[in-house]
Write a structure and sequence with these properties.
- The chain folds into 4 domains: 3-155, no CATH class; 179-492, 3-Layer(aba) Sandwich (Rossmann fold), CATH 3.40.50.200; 503-674, Immunoglobulin-like, CATH 2.60.40; 676-798, Immunoglobulin-like (Sandwich), CATH 2.60.40.
- Helix 4 (79-91) crosses helix 9 (284-293), helix 8 packs parallel to helix 11 (429-451) and helix 9 (284-293) packs parallel to helix 10 (323-334).
- By secondary structure, the chain is of the alpha+beta class.
- Strand 7, helix 8 and strand 8 (269-274) form a beta-alpha-beta unit.
- It is globular.
- It binds 2-acetamido-2-deoxy-beta-D-glucopyranose (8 copies) and calcium ion (CA).
- One 2-acetamido-2-deoxy-beta-D-glucopyranose binds at residues 84, 87-88, 91, 293-294.
- Residues 243-465 form the Peptidase S8/S53 domain.
């Protein structure tokens, strides 16, 4: 598929635009693609004028692309794929948290024929280049300096992160069974002790989905043809041979069949997806997002690729170095997909790595550190003790290591002909990463078989390090530990003699108890009703059909008794013998700081078994009429605790409080107001926008609209607050009224709010129509050190309330 075909689906007017249009194109030019992220304003400009991006290139005057290079523009990610991802986020309760991929473009420099690309492909078949060509580095530097450009990176395939092993190193498959040569399966300290994991239900990976993203495979190799590996999308490309993907899949999926070896998880379901989106063009973020569209929470995505360093330095870096790839990985992990990423063959200290903008994105101790949620894998030697392999990247970002040499697995040739080869010696962070996927899949399989639940990405990432095998010289190697499945299984799945409960209340429907990366304060588990429910377990618990329904609460009516219920789950490995949950109310506020909380009461729950396939419902918590204030709308906070998973202490600095809100799964917020639909006149809702409680801090106020066309929304704020936040509107006495958009997300204001300040605002709404999914939210974001993060929101949902 050529890029112009892609774009014509989504844009009408974008054609091939000729730049520097003097020379003829007879001269062969260097042809390549880049990904470009525009600022929102520049994105609008590009929409209005399809030549806009071309003018950016004119301003940077790139050298080395021939006399008359052409610039062709299209979207980086297909619109259908973006829509699918948005829908996934919506289903998971993450309505507006999906990154916006519309502002990412894919730009091709050069002619469209593909002819040159084909030549490059053949020439670079055997490339040993590990740095970007200088003219590409210059182009990137030129573009990133433009104010309209937020991010830019090349779309180029690199050799997969292996060392050697790509040529024919095949060994006759009629040899003795090879399993004894698979030392990586053996007990620690030599291997990960997959053989121990096989002794447990689910320990062969049954029920676990694995997707390998790379370039080429022989998916009908004799030793895994019975595994029925399928192809998701892209082009099966033999540029560096089909051997690499074949060796990767074998480590995980060689079958137990009296030939060759046995993979770590022969019972898992394997699929592959190519980063070549067509025969000539690679696009890693697009491949990741397409994989995500076809995957479920708890599946494992393996990223077997690496990137050139965009700063031009020699030595490959992990694929998440590029912003679009990073955002795509975040999408995956926030939807509960476990992402395992090769740490890359660059021999580099990732802690010291700095981007073109001077950020240390891989250094966990730096304020620039950014968390994709992926598990990064380094490479160690096969012998004991395990030294860091000379080519492996290292540093605090590396979560675990595994064998980077001598990995016995399946192999094939260059011609896609051989389905019976094996190799003794697959290597690189390439060979290490599938071992870690295998370890994760064993744990996921056991969890599924014994507890009926899959685990989330951060839970598994932490688990893989439990009592792991250290490298030879940890202070020097800095590649963390190699997973030891016996130690992990004995610690976490040990039939209630160890481990701990880990009870949690969901922050939103898609929350599995990991630190939230999306919406806070939309808990479906804090439920308020006007009448007591006769059988709360039947109405709200597992099997009730209401498990993922966020609309179970009814409006609060002052002067009436109400009933509150809280639903808890336990994702730990031991039952919680008892638990309790305390609920507070607050006036509606975008940020519900503890000084606004008023206690309603505490409910004590029965034991919560260590299987997170069960929602346990608290007994009724009565909120009596005389305690219900008259303001009409409320937010609720619930804090839960049990033996060995206590009620968390409420922190007293604001940064710690934000961490607590986002990361502590024993605390949840429900700032949801169900509003009976009324179509005549303005409905008015009070809402407080507080400052932090400890010092003056900077906040963004955002509005997120999902109201039908023809609805009207405005916000009335105190004049002083409008001044601080830069909000412009009509003055009405000591208030300012600003019109908002009913169906869009927009920034209302940004500014410094005083400690302890409480701006009393009012949202005014006219909804057009009474049916469907009408919703409006005000979101408060803190401009903290690592960027802007959501700290709270109030959502008004208009429409009928679920009958129970
Ligand atoms: C996303 O796409 C996949 C694959 O085409 C499809 O099975 C799935 O239903 C889609 N999901 C949503 C939420 O649209
Ligand atoms: C790569 O190089 C090998 C060895 O020269 C050759 O046999 C093979 O055809 C080449 N592959 C491609 C895709 O050009
Ligand atoms: C690849 O390059 C290396 C080093 O330049 C050379 O020794 C080797 O023969 C080449 N292999 C092929 C298949 O061209
Ligand atoms: C837990 O008990 C079951 C049943 O007795 C047993 O099959 C399983 O191996 C035990 N698990 C562990 C980790 O010991
Ligand atoms: C609320 O409940 C209390 C205690 O159960 C009861 O005495 C009171 O009459 C109830 N009030 C209303 C308005 O239903
Ligand atoms: C709630 O449970 C925690 C931990 O089990 C306990 O320390 C606390 O006293 C309990 N609170 C109430 C009010 O029962
Ligand atoms: C209100 O919604 C209806 C459809 O429900 C639509 O036909 C009408 O145009 C909308 N009103 C306005 C003012 O947009
Ligand atoms: C196969 C391959 O690309 N090997 C490279 C791994 O990284 C080291 C250090 O950057 C290079 O020297 C190798 O050529
Ligand atoms: Ca076999």
């Amino acid at each position: 598929m050529k890029i112009s075909t892609v774009q014509s689906v989504f844009y009408n007017a974008l054609g091939v635009l000729s730049l520097w249009a003097t020379a003829s194109s007879a001269q062969q030019e260097d042809q390549f693609r880049i990904a470009l992220k525009l600022t929102p304003e520049a994105h609008q400009q590009q929409h209005a004028d399809p030549n806009f991006i071309t003018t950016l290139f004119q301003r940077t005057q790139p050298q080395g692309f021939g006399a008359a290079p052409q610039v062709t523009t299209g979207p980086l990610i297909g619109a259908q794929r973006s829509a699918n991802i948005s829908a996934r986020f919506a289903l998971a309760g993450k309505r507006d948290a999906a990154p916006n991929f519309d502002v990412w473009y894919q730009i091709q420099l050069g002619s469209e024929s593909g002819e040159q690309a084909r030549r490059d492909t053949e020439a670079q078949n055997n490339t040993t280049e590990t740095a970007l060509p200088q003219h590409i580095v210059e182009l990137i530097r030129g573009l990133i300096e433009l104010p309209e450009v937020e991010s830019v990176h090349p779309l180029l395939a690199t050799p997969p992160p292996t060392i050697g092993g790509l040529g024919p190193r095949a060994i006759d498959a009629s040899d003795d069974p090879r399993s004894p040569d698979q030392g990586y399966l053996n007990p620690a300290p030599q291997g990960i002790d997959a053989r121990y994991g096989w002794g447990f239900p689910g320990g062969d990976g049954t029920g676990v989905g694995i997707v390998d993203m790379e370039q080429g495979w022989k998916i009908d190799h004799q030793d895994f043809i019975a595994a029925g590996i399928t192809f998701i999308s892209g082009f099966n490309k033999g540029r560096w041979g089909f051997a690499h993907g074949t060796s990767v899949m074998g480590e995980m999926l060689m079958q137990d069949n009296q030939m060759g070896g046995v993979g770590i998880v022969p019972g898992a379901k394997g699929r592959v997806i190519s980063l070549w989106r067509d025969e000539w063009w690679p696009n890693v973020p697009d491949a990741i997002l397409d994989a995500v569209a076809h995957m479920s929470a708890g599946d494992i995505l393996l990223l077997e690729a690496q990137e050139y360093d965009p700063t031009g330095v020699i030595g490959y870096v992990p694929v998440e170095v590029f912003d679009a790839t990073f955002e795509a990985i975040q999408v995956a992990t926030s939807l509960g997909i476990i992402v395992v990423e090769a740490g890359a063959n660059g021999s580099r200290d990732l802690d010291a790595y700095t981007t073109l903008l001077g950020k240390q994105i891989f250094n966990r101790a730096s304020p620039d550190y950014r968390e994709s949620g992926a598990i990064l894998v380094g490479a160690g030697s096969s012998g004991v003790p395990h030294y860091r392999m000379w080519f492996s990247n290292y540093g605090s970002r590396i979560d675990v290591f595994a064998w980077g040499e001598n990995v016995d697995t399946t192999d094939t040739d260059y011609s896609y002909g051989t389905e019976s080869w094996y190799t003794c010696c697959f290597s690189g962070t390439s060979s290490a990463s599938p071992i870690v996927v295998g370890a994760a899949a064993i744990l996921q399989g056991i969890s599924l078989a014994t507890r009926g639940a899959k685990m989330g990405p951060l839970e598994i990432r932490d688990m893989l390090k439990i009592n792991g095998t250290p490298s030879a010289d940890p202070a020097y190697d800095r590649i963390s530990v190699m997973p030891n499945l016996k130690a992990i299984i004995d610690t976490v799945f040990n039939n209630n003699t160890g481990g701990n409960p880990d009870i949690y209340i969901r922050d939103h429907v898609g929350d599995t108890g990991d630190a939230t990366s999306g919406v806070v304060s939309s808990s479906p588990d804090i439920i308020i009703r006007q009448q007591p429910i006769a059988n709360p377990d039947a109405a709200l618990g597992s099997g009730s059909g209401t498990e993922t329904n966020p609309s179970l609460s009814q409006p609060v009516v002052s002067g009436q008794n109400h009933s509150l219920y809280v639903r808890l789950q336990n994702r730990g490995t031991r039952a919680a013998s008892s638990a309790n949950v305390t609920v507070y109310w607050s006036e509606p506020a975008t940020l519900v700081t503890p000084n606004l909380w008023t206690e309603i009461g505490t409910a004590t729950l029965p034991a919560i078994p260590a299987t997170s396939n069960g929602l346990i419902v608290s007994p009724r918590l009565a909120w009596l009429a005389d305690k219900v204030p008259a303001s009409g709308h409320y937010c609720f906070v619930a804090l839960a605790g049990s033996d060995n998973d206590p009620v968390p202490a409420v922190p007293n600095t604001f940064p710690d409080f934000v961490k607590f809100v986002r990361e502590n799964n024993n605390a949840a917020w429900r700032n949801f107001n169900a509003i009976p639909a009324a179509t005549d006149g303005w409905q008015k809702f009070p809402v407080t926008v507080p400052g932090a409680f400890d010092s003056a801090r900077e906040f963004v106020l955002k509005a997120v609209g999902h109201l039908p066309q023809g609805s009207k929304v405005r916000l009335q704020v105190p004049k002083e607050f409008a001044g601080k936040m830069g909000i412009k509107g009509c003055n009405k006495g000591d208030k300012v009224v600003v019109g908002l958009k009913p169906g869009e997300t927009l920034q209302v204001g940004v500014g410094l709010l005083d400690a302890g300040s409480l701006a009393k605002c009012e949202l005014q709404v006219q909804v057009n129509g009474t049916e469907g999914d009408a919703e409006y939210a005000l979101v408060q974001e803190w401009v903290g050190e690592g960027g802007t993060i959501e700290v709270g929101r109030v959502t008004w949902r208009f429409g009928p309330v679920v009958e129970l």
